Amino acid sequence: MFCWFCAKAARGTCRFCGRGTCEDHARFGPYLLVLNRSDRRQRTEGLVVEDALQCGTCRPRPQPIPMPELD
What we know:
Structural class: mainly beta
Strand order of the largest sheet: 1-2
Order of helices and strands: EEEE
Organism: Luedemannella helvata
Helix content: under 10%
Protein name: DUF2180 family protein
Radius of gyration: 16 Å
Number of domains: 1
Number of helices: 0
Distance between the termini: 37 Å
Oligomer: single chain
């Protein structure tokens, strides 16, 4: 796989969009893996990876999108 930006050999893929990224164009940021709802504490907690690979071009949406067709 090649880097989406410069066509060098990619070192990884963006966690959000899957674009190949070389070490020069790689960005890092948080990625939410799982949400858990605790019955005892009545709150939702998330398991987050702090340094997930990101390409910097894609823009993950900040808010969830309703998908009633999956209910």
